[in-house]
Amino acid sequence: MQALWEQASCNQLAVPYKYQKVAALIVHWAKYLDEDLDCESESKELHDLFEKRFKFKSTILKLDSNRDPQRQLRRGLDTLVLDHDGPCRNNLLIVYYSGHGLAEPSKGLYITGKENYNPDKSAPGHGYSPHASWNEAEAILQDSSADVLTIIDSCSAGSIWKDAATKDRSWEVLAASNRWDPTAAPGPHSFTRALIDSLTARLDAHPDQLFSVFQLHDDIMKRRNDERSVFRTRHGLNQRYIKLAKLDVRSSHHDEEDLPAYTREAAFMTLRLSFGNRSHLPDEQLKNLARGISRAAAEAELGINKIDLVEFREIEGWCRLSSVVKLCSAVRKAQRLWRGRAARSELKRQRDEEVEEVVDDAGDGFGGVDDEAELSRLHVKRVRTDSKLLPRDGMMTRVGIEPPSPSPSMGSD
Question: Which Gene Ontology MF annotations are present (predicted)?
């Protein structure tokens, strides 16, 4: 819903609806440390997809044991932020890791070059221990201004959970597993394989259409038939979500100073639209609403450069209340129909009784008339004096009004 709104409103305001600069850092271990998994091939495929089809800037970082892996990881993230940080909404940083991972109580996620590696033990032989603290290294990202998307394909990937402070920027995480869960190794059932296939399918179907990371995660789960992967936001109360799309060629090849002006907001206004009789907006109606509000904002000439859809929330209990109202309405309608039918039945019964009494009275008054034709004639001409269906003359007599006498001119012909 947010993606549709953003695309429609930004087009109406004539401002970019996509990120203008996206940079990715692809992290995995050197092959001699990663022989049991071989994450390099899938990592390279994701790197190519980002660079060649999405037009993102992408860099591969291979961690080894010749230098301190913790410093290598920290330096890679420092360089990413230094070269590509910028205003949120305009800049997005993507950090991806594939390899072994383990959860350390109170320390978060440790990435390792070997399965079942114990980071508390020193490395045998020469070189550095093939492990690094992810939570420690990503501290640099907490100080950046850009939106951040972290993607972790490892066991215990969910152990990086630690919400950042509420900021204007958005930070989201895609994790292949929860805190203590394993995940599939590289291959047809891996998280990265499903990620690549889902990104490719979205791009093939709608090359210029935005899609949220939440939608991407939903695609991944459907492909894997595995509910252990997790999507989570880390930006506190900020309800602006990251949307992905292929960058425009101009955006991916121009320096930041050449990009359209899209800076931090100086102020914002919160409005609330109240819908009285619906709990869902079809896509076309949502886009029409976005265009209409954006058109009015542009005509106000107040320098409004973005209108965000924060949320569309159904009031709790509205559907149940609506069902009760509909049920009560149906009951009242049924009652009206029943009363109408009952009244008509009663009226018919009274008419039938009156006719029977008239026929009986006629037979008694004429000494037992057996002629059916005569009875029929009497039936038509005689009506009970207490009937509600008296003819006009009988009714006038009953209320004390005599019909007028014939005038001299009447019957002269």
Answer: cysteine-type endopeptidase activity
Domain shared by 242 and 353, yes or no: no
Q: Residue 23: which H helix or E strand, with range?
A: strand 21-29
Encode 223-251 in three state secondary structure: HHCCCCCEEEECCCCCCCCCEECCCCHHH
Q: Which residues of the chain have pLDDT under 70?
A: 2-3, 5, 10-16, 116-126, 162-167, 236-238, 250-265, 278-279, 310, 316-326, 353-413
Strands 108-112 and 147-153: unpaired
Angstrom distance (rounded) from CA 116 to CA 131 = 11
The verdict on residue 282 lying in a domain is: no
Q: How many CB atoms lie within 10 A of CB 119?
A: 17
Q: Which pLDDT does position 227 carry in this prediction?
A: 74
Is 19:247 a contact under the CB 8 Å cutoff? Answer: yes
Indicate the number of domains in the chain.
Answer: 2
What angle is formed at CA 89 by the lines to CA 85 and CA 95, rounded to 5 degrees?
A: 50
Q: Is residue 46 situated within a structural domain? A: yes
Q: Is residue 410 domain-resident?
A: no
- Its pTM stands at 0.68
Instruction: Give the separation between CA 75 and CA 62, rounded to whole angstroms.
Output: 12
Q: Whole domain around residue 145: which residue ranges? A: 17-259
